[in-house]
Amino acid sequence: MIRFGPAGIPLSCKGRTLQDGIEDVHNLSLNALEVQMVRPSAYTRPPEDEEVGLTLKDISEDFVIEILRDDEFICDPDEPIEEDDDLFYMPSSVTDTFGELFTVGRMAKRLDVNLSIHTPYYMDLGSNNDMTELCLNSIRHAGIILNAMGGDIVVTSAGIYDGSMPEEEVDDNIVNNLAFIVDWWKDNNIKPRLGIEVTGQQDVFGSLDQVLNLCDALDGAVVPVVNFAHHHARTGGTLLDVDDFLNILETVEPYSNGRIHTAFTGVDYNENGERRQMPIKKGDMRFDPLAEALIEMKPDATVISTSPLLEHDAMYMKIICERALVKKVSRDMKERKKAEAAAAAAAAGE
């Protein structure tokens, strides 16, 4: 199955809650939504007297995502809060309370909307500074949030090359920090996949080869996320025909645990890579060849629209893919009829 959806609540959605966005996606005949983490800051506070004995799912005043107990974080949603705990809360998150996430997840499954989540777009797992710790927390929290919603994949980038240390050291730090996240993921039974996104600029970790090497280094514990616009910009406009897209899909498929996660939009770029994202019809990378590649390969795949037009371009891609399918079916029927006619003529001549 090939799913399409926007990166965030549809622009046309009258309500701005995540529940509104999921319902709107469904009403637009789309079936995927990438949740955006835009303000991931988290702080600690002691529990209120009435919160002692409750769980993370029960708290109705704040979005409390973890319990801090004896310098260790606990994210089990069924763990009772103790008097001496500290609560790790997010003043702004994807829902008002942690408990709402479970309701949202059930709604998404009922409407057949596949949920993913994207961490903040600036990530630095290579410098090992205070920002790195914040980024690691953002990835952990994205995992906790999506796990509560029963979603599919957490999408993140990894780091930058700012010239303050050798690139090899940055690469090693990224591998080690993601290895820490992978261990934490397993220890806390976080079920969504962790996806590393192909990035669009030369001074950012995330070429396709780097991402695949990272998947190898972590023994398949992370999966590649192909942002086609990023790859197109980073490689100087190399995605032109069906074979270009098919080659990428076939390359990442063995790493993707049976489900390929991608993003698509138009893109403006120069020799340094991506400059800005644009509506699909305004870029020089067409969606039609990717649609043909998807129809030919028939993968279980999700295509997220990161276009400024969001749901408009998600619907546009879905229509193009449906047209490609109709053309392929028509072509296959004609070829089958020709083959049957040839076989009948051969039999008659015997």
Please provide a written account of the structure:
Strand 9 (193-197), helix 5 and strand 10 form a beta-alpha-beta unit. The protein is 40% helix and 19% strand. An 8-stranded parallel beta sheet has the order 1-14-11-10-9-8-7-2. A 4-stranded antiparallel beta sheet has the order 3-6-4-5. A two-stranded antiparallel sheet has the order 12-13. It contains 9 helices and 14 strands. Helix 3 runs parallel beside helix 4 (167-187). With 350 residues, the chain is α/β, with parallel strands linked by helices. The protein is globular and about 90 Å long. The mean pLDDT is 94.
Q: Distance N terminus to C terminus?
A: 45 Å
Which sheet architecture does the biggest sheet show? 8 strands, parallel
Helix share, percent? 25-40%
The spatial strand order of the largest sheet comes to 1-14-11-10-9-8-7-2
Radius of gyration: 23 Å
Poorly predicted sequence stretches spanning 5 or more consecutive residues: none
Element pattern in H and E: EHEEEEEHEHEHEHEHHEEEHEH
Q: Please, what is the oligomeric state?
A: single chain
Name the beta content range: 15-25%
Shape: globular
Task: Summarize the topology.
Layout: E1 2-6, H1 18-27, E2 32-36, E3 43-45, E4 63-69, E5 72-74, E6 86-90, H2 100-110, E7 114-118, H3 130-149, E8 153-156, H4 167-187, E9 193-197, H5 208-217, E10 223-227, H6 228-234, H7 242-252, E11 260-264, E12 266-270, E13 273-278, H8 288-297, E14 301-305, H9 311-349
Parallel strand pairs: 1-14, 2-7, 7-8, 8-9, 9-10, 10-11, 11-14
Antiparallel strand pairs: 3-6, 4-5, 4-6, 12-13
Helix pairs in contact: 2-3, 3-4, 7-8, 8-9
